[in-house]
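Loading example: each entry is read as two labelled lines plus one structure line.
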Amino acid sequence: MNQIYHVSSSPHVRSRLQTGPVMYNVIISLLPATLVGIWRFGVRAGIIVFLSILAAVASEAICCKIMKKELTIKDGSAVVTGLLLALCLSPLVPFYIPVLGAVFAIVVVKCMFGGLGKNFINPALAARCFLLISFSGTMTAYGVDGVSSATPLEVLKGGGAVNVTQMFLGTSTGVIGCSALALLIGGLYLWISGGITWEIPASMIGAFGIFMILFGGQGLDGKFLLAHLCGGGILMGAFFMATDPVTSPVSSTGQLLYGAIAGVLSGLFRVNGSAADSVSYAIIITNLVTPMIDQFIVPKPFAYRKKEGESFFSLAAIAPALVLTLITLIAGVALSGVFGLTKDTIEEQERAAQAAAYKEVVTGAEEIVDWEEGKAAVEALEGAVYGSDFGRVYINDAYKGVDASGNTVGYVISVTTADGFDGKITLAVGIAADGTVNGISFTELNETAGMGMRADEPEWKGQFAGKNVERFELMKGGGSTEDSQIDSISGASITSGAVVNAVNAALDFYAANGGAAAADAAA
Amino acid sequence: MARRTFRGGVHPADKKALSRDAAFRRYEPGGLLVFPLGQHIGRPATAVVKKGDRVLAGQIIGEASGFISANIISSCSGTVKAVEKHRTVMGVMAESVIISNDGQYEKMPGIGEKVDYTTLDGKEIVQKVKDAGIVGLGGAGFPTNVKLSPKNPDGIRYVIANGAECEPYITCDDQLMRTHADEIVTGMKVMMRLFPNAKGVVVIEDNKPEAIAAMQKACETESDISVKVVPIKYPQGGEREIISVVAGIDIKASQLPADAGCIVDNVATIYAIYQAVCESTPLMEKAVTISGEAVAEPSNLIVPIGTLVSELFDAAGGAKEGTVPVKVLSGGPMMGVALATTEVPLQKNNNAFTFLEEDEVAAAEKQQTACIRCARCVHVCPLGLNPQMMAVAAERKDYERYEKVLYGLECISCGTCTFTCPAKRPLMQLFKEARNDIMAAKAVKRAEEAAAAAALEKEAAQKRQEEIDAAVAAALRVREPGKNLARASEAEQRLAAQSEAVNNVDEKVEASVKTAIKEAEADLASNAKTTLGNKVTDAVRADVADTSSEEKSVKAIGKEDAK
């Protein structure tokens, strides 16, 4: 027996657990939410999920190849990233959105920082934030079967009532993975199977709940709190995003603190910021705090704890983290204070600007007053997309202009289209009693400077004025000859098309709501 | 105060079914037996036999050298073939006594004599344990007589017999408790004579029902010895875990079990104490488990210490048909040491050899991914450490953080974190490296400090010499003969006292330098560190030489002065 045997450091046995199965377990836990999403939103949602995962895996493979690293797609982390991203997208997004997002998540956030375990923020969330910033209109257009509608949280923010049961089951509007029940089932499974610990979800949901009770403005209103807990990705964030081990602290105390920060920030952003996207930003910011938490909150070994049951940390160890939390809170409170102070002024200014815009499009109007019939018709629409051939167009409001002696001189219809190149465009369409367009005026236009923004130039928007047609038609190549033809802004046909559709919708609305009768009466 | 279990821990497949019901077999080797002189923690023993000497079984062939050391006992009769370096289970070449066994096992006279331990006082018991060369047989190898001599014997509240045997594969303690329960209980009673306020507790994991029944039966008549059954979980057998469970106290790495009022010994050690005290039999043979998937007949053997592992493998039927052992462990798979070769002898502190046909570590290396910070290691660490952060610090060689902030030196190397890690990170290896580096740096620091201390002492000696010179001069200046004489004798007395002081200083310096050199030489891995160590020792040696020459001159002056 002069054989030489293998030598290595102990231990010589290893558990069966591997990184791959750990990730597959996360995928399993996300299946309920995915399936409910596909069931609710149809094949389109399935395609988005598929594309997102495919793009994530493919870009990781390519990255590994280019960086001359070992192929790491087998560990399943790219699949998890792709799936998580898809579940956070609206089912209405164009197919390039999940692809772009997944590529961003894997290439920029993950691989460029060293791959698995090295990313400093959650790749899926980072990609979502990237998409939100880059394609805000597209990303925030929610709906079912191609029909847009506001998400429950948008309704809630606007002071409306929501159906909590629908939100819980996932049959309302929202992202693909919006079923609270399915997320809860998945989260519970993940916890029981040891994929996550209770600390982060518990402290995040707890802190968020407390924040909403204190600052949500509705106190202990059960329905209000439930709606906020079921919607807007709090559950998705608490169970699947914030718990991403790579970007969350390792110690139990650290996790509790981390969850609390994420919860408070989510609440803060939701109350004072954009309703739907608060959680994404909150978790991303909390991710950045993780290294600091890990640096300072180090559990003491058992023998170093002074007495039985003493907690994992001493005050000195958590002081920096406490200070940090305090700073966050103070900054938040200060921000909301400033917001509160300036809110009224801003709103007044906006109203004044609006009134000016409305007057501008009604020739000879001395005052803008409510148009009762029109308003009733707007309410009857219930915030749904107007008509079927104007794209995602919403009728906001209807007014009429009166002259000094109180005679109606024209009508103003405020229209919003979500089909702009960079999000929503809102405009006021002034229509004379006989249906002639007096002019249009933009109250919300955030298109590309030098391209879409040129819609606001008199040369272009002047094309609509003084024309009495049933429908306008966009000439992409220019060269309009007839009244109904509108030249496209060169290089901004999407913006031009959206505006033309919006004007057409306004004309249609006017015609449908007694426009002709009004014209007769005027005559 | 007692707890049901400790926090953390894991459940590796225990694999004990392979050998758990294999009754003890005695195996007597032929040929050569090898006795490394360092089979314990502390200084190696000094060989007291030489080539050609005839030795008997039970004869002391290596004598303990120093307080923390242990005797080495021959386990066979025969002739000393050589006293030379031989490879040990730790993989190093170490000074060993090699005896060619005559197969007679002729014993030293007096061995086997029955002694009533109640007639012995504490000192005699400890002496017998010391003579028998008993060390912790569970693996650590700490000299038992030292363990039995805590500072405050009255403060000991528990004598704990560790029968947890939480390492996979190993079953010899199980068998020992099944077959020698009464002896173990008597051994505990012997120990408890030393500790008047102690209760005896036998801790056994609940996967050994037969051993539990046997031990319970043996303690039936004992009012102050009980059996504590603990749930199966690795590393329940760890000293600090067992103290946590029995006494409800967590101790630091720097503390001794005695600080928690506990004396913990493996059941095999306690059996050895029983044999040494009650049957006048020194530690010559011990129970070992030979198991593993690559062994034909997984066995529990009673074997003379010094038997080569290759022979033990053959005694267990050799390789199982269709298998080839690729990895051989002394001990179990969680904390055992992998052997490169089986041509090494069984030591006192080995309780098993495990022959594996698969190298899971090699397989794990292929599955290794980056750390995903899942914190599973944090949750299973029985000491409440944070292996994830420790690994990061160790990789960066940020030893300051590793030791001071993360308490890295508290690690008991149980391997629980490494076992659990889904990313298959080599955590344990990193921690061992870190510990070695930190210890080496500390040794260098100690040597430097010793040198600095020596320099200080030298300065003090110089000062004293000046004082003596002044005294002598003063004495010479005085004219009156009577007074002069008195002063001279006074000076002489002071001189004698000073010389003694200088002598003491010399001894101290020499001793500290010696230990410093030894530790530095042993610990320093790299040449650079060795060079530094040498420089330091050279400096110290020069200083010592200086001091002693100065002392001589002081003496000469003193004598002259007296005249």
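The CA atoms of residues 171 and 481 of chain A lie 49 Å apart.
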